[in-house]
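Recap quiz, item 2
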Amino acid sequence: VQLQESGPGLVKPSETLSLTCTVSGDSMNNYYWNWIRQAPGKGLEWIGNVYDTGSSSRNPALKSRVTISVDTSKGRFSLRLTSITSADTAVYFCARDRGAFAFDVWGHGTLVTVSS
Amino acid sequence: QSVLTQPPSVSGAPGQRVDISCTGSSSNTGAGYDVHWYQQLPGTAPKLLIYDNKNRPSGVPARFSGSKSGTSATLAITGLQAEDEGDYYCQSYDSSLRGSVFGGGTKLTVL
């Protein structure tokens, strides 16, 4: 299985960031699919996840700004982050949860820069 | 301030052993939730190194091992190699936050 993130590399402050993770090589069924980000020079931050049914969980620190959705028929899941600020500049990764929040497959990551 | 606490850096000479600690609290590691470890080499995505405290995914060398006791977990790397240099993160579930939490990461330097 392979994951590939896609989306804009540059977003203006106050706008909405939309990213998509395309899953290939395996079914999306029976897995949780996650978004994680890493600000430049910083550690990993879990953003949230979505199950194949569409049920999702989000990091409380970002909850009000985050929407995660899934389209298993198209083999992809998406992240929507509203009211973007410079603090959201980061590499965004998508990852599969093999169980108990152990992320066994990761995308390469996509750098999102917030700047006017 | 990360929910899980790791030392910022560790170092060791080739062939030696290093241990990386990960300390949590009663809402995560102390509550019995499993700890996972990731290796992130420069410029790459994290790679799952240890899952469920002590299990190695297929392809991960036996030089890497994990253990957990109470609120703390440890990643041990024996027979250090130059290619082990990078950042290591622990991860668990937190029942108060109802989601995944990571440690702040530990930078491993092979001298």
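The interface with chain B takes residues 34, 43-46, 48-49, 57-60, 93, 98, 100-104, 106-109 of chain A (CB under 8 Å).
The first strand of chain A starts at residue 2 and ends at 6.
End of item.
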